[in-house]
Each structure stands twice: as structure tokens, then as C-alpha cells.
Amino acid sequence: RALTAAEEDVAVRLQREAVAVLAGGPAELEHARALADLGATLRRSSDRIAAREPLLLALSEADRLGATVVAERAREELVASGLRPRRAQLAGVAALTPRQRRVCELAASGRTNQAVAQELFVTVKTVETHLLAAYRKLGIRSKGELPRALASQGA
To answer: What percentage of the chain's residues is helix, strand, coil (to nearest 5)?
Structure first.
């Protein structure tokens, strides 16, 4: 990470290498910092779209670790890139919006999509949209997996 104060193209290459070396290892905070550094460098080099992925990952990882300084830096860089992050977490129950969580809770209790829609005064299509987004965030594929996913993640 210290060597990345060089020219932008060299910095990006070294930062990508740092992210790869630190990924999955015990230095999780350093990995989050490396992701934030990479995203910041990409944003400054006018590649705002490419900057978003490492910044979102840095925000999620830093938030999970309680690293508020790194999380705030990643959030500021995301805003500078034109993105308005709504949630710090990208996956799991914490990533669900309040409406997604409510739809999941009702669906997990055995209600049909139509019953959920009637109870929440929305369309069935809206319920389906919320469920699909929630499935992606929870890492599941069907309504039958909801009770387990919500319970195992502390909902």
C-alpha cells in the first residue's frame, strides 16, 4: 500500500495486487483499506464506475469490522463517484431495506405473495421484486429458504 503513491497507472496496478494478496487473509482491516485506496485512485483517475465496486466492498468490510474511519472514507468516495450508498452492508439481513425485511418476514411465516401484497397494500409484482432483491442479499434461491436464512442471520 505504501508504494502506491506513484503515478496513477502504477498505483492502480499495485493497489489491485495489494487487494489480491490481502483477500481472504487474516489482515481484514488492511484489505478494507486497500480496497478503499484502490477505489479512491480509480475515482480520481476519472473511472468513477470502476471505482464503485472496490469502494462498496471496502464499505461493507469496514462496517463489519467496526472500522468507522475506513467506512467513512469509502462512503465519501462513493458519494464523490456519484453513488449514494443506502446501506453499509451488501449482504445478509443487515443489507435488507425495512420493506424487504417486512416482506421476507411475512413470506417466511407461510403467507403467499398475494397475501403479503394485500397485507402491505402493494401489488404482487412489488412483493416479488422485494423478494428477489432479498434472496440475492441473503444468498438464497427460494421462499422455502427464508425462515432458515432469517434465523441464521439474527433476524
So the answer is: 75, 0, 25
**pLDDT value of position 155:** 47
Where on the phi/psi map is residue 85: left (φ > 0), alpha (ψ -120 to 50), or beta? beta
- Distance in angstroms (rounded) separating the CA atoms of residues 97 and 88: 11
Asked which of 22-26, 95-99, 108-112, 138-142 is least confident by mean pLDDT, the reply is 95-99
* 153 burial level (CB within 10 Å; 0-12, 13-18, 19+): middle
Looking at residue 95, its pLDDT comes to: 78
* CA–CA gap between residue 70 and residue 60 (Å, rounded): 10
Among residues 4, 79, 66, 80, which one has the least CA distance to residue 35?
A: 4
Contacts by 50-56 with C-beta closer than 8 Å and gap 24+? 51/77, 51/81, 52/78, 52/81, 52/83, 54/19, 55/81, 55/83, 56/83, 56/85, 56/90
Q: Where are the beta strands (DSSP E) in the chain?
A: none
The number of residues in the chain equals 155
Predicted TM-score (pTM) of this structure: 0.56
List strand residue ranges (DSSP E) for 18-114, in order: none
Residue whose cell numbers read 411475512 = 106
